[in-house]
Amino acid sequence: MIIVLAMMLQLGGCAAAESVPADTATAAEGTASLQERESTADRAESGTPETPEDRNESSVQETPAPEVTETGKGTDAAPSQTGSATQTERPADAESTPPGETKEAEPAALPPRYDPWGKQTADDRDPADRRPAMRLPFRPHVLSALLADHFGEAFTQDFYDYCDAVLAGADGFVCREPERWYLISDLARVYFPLGELAQPDPEPADAADRPDGWIALNYALPREDFLREAERFQARIAFLLANADLREGDSDLEIALKLYTSESLRIAYDYAADEGEPEGFALSPYRALTGDTGICQEIAGAYAYLLMQAGVEAVTCGTLARDASFAHEWTLVRLNGTYFHADVTWQLDAPSGLRHFGETDAGREADNLDIEYLNIGEINEIWHRDLPMEDETFAPLWPASRYRIEHEAGRILCLDEADPEDAAGAEDFRTARVFVMPEEADDQKRIAETPGA
Q1: CB atoms within 10 A of CB 391
Q2: Structural domain contains residue 192
Q3: To 5 degrees, how large is the angle CA 130–CA 134–CA 140?
Q4: Which residues neighbour 78 within 8 Å (Cβ) at sequence distance 6 or greater?
Q5: Full domain range(s) for residue 216
Q6: Bridge partners of 319?
Q7: What whole-number percentage of the chain has pLDDT above 70?
Q8: Is residue 183 part of a domain?
Q9: What's the domain count of the chain?
Q10: Which residue among 70, 141, 189, 319 is least enclosed by CB atoms within 10 Å?
């Protein structure tokens, strides 16, 4: 059974028992990038690039976020509308503020999320939240704590050395444990997606002239082109994090929820890729991150990588259906010291909801997934028995088809599918259920605060 599971997951079959929307099946060309602008731009409509060089540009500005720019080739900008505030003369009878008092400014309008497929029916972010955007520098070193602990310090350092060598465009690097070089490539799929363009080679032609443990790097692009692509990749990650509207002071739960929804809105399921690898592309999180489409094994890794970039522990996992009719992969996210299931792929048909966020093992089994053989990290070494997930903390969120996080109040407002207000498309949450967010434990430390991260 384990051998069959590993083979099916490697092949990447991902026919979901709950189907993803048919209207997102076709991927358009192009992908989005951020440009520096002085005003808010409308949501850009674009899709997946044929090659890294064929990207088009669009723009998104966060409020009150610092500007982040994603550079890329191409000169055809996606359509957008911009406007600027102009100062007008105040009417004589206009309301005046008494001397000595300051009138509180109205909250600035939120810019639209990047949603190239038009799936967003309501923008449910809190317009009263004026906290500044979270500043997140690109992290070259991210690896699930679960896997780092499993493989040990020497291997973890080898993995980070590989990441540094790739970003520098180096010929290779010295590996402390060269017998496990293949694991570096396997884990880079999720934790260093750019590695898709720089594969390790343990037996280079010039091995005799190299030091012991030397692992060469084979680049898919000429060196200068690769270095430009590495810059574009880092800018793209900054863009996707900004698109989630992460704010200073957000808890791990808030970060996980915001990225869950922004990714559900951004990505379209690639039905064609479900039948086999698209020409010119390997099925990988790199493809889902640099474009806007993918299948489960790509989407799960993309979500995990963005969580890790934002300082939230995450790892991918996979298993077979209980009747062995398909394989499926998703993400595990650690919140307040406990791991939970989070399946962006199966949320694509209702991208404003939370049906598959924070699920338990029982919930996954109800989805016709064989939890007994859950392959955590997809390394065939950590299994469900090592990490059972039975915590139902987030069960009240599952019925929500729309939600709003109110950070200052420490709560989440939920509108359920059966709510009349929700069916009417109401703009307010006056009738919403209230979910009180659990407080983070004092010892819950962000990945960003750990040495070497």
Answers
A1: 16
A2: yes
A3: 170
A4: 30, 32, 44, 45, 46, 56, 57, 58
A5: 145-226
A6: 328
A7: 70
A8: yes
A9: 1
A10: 141
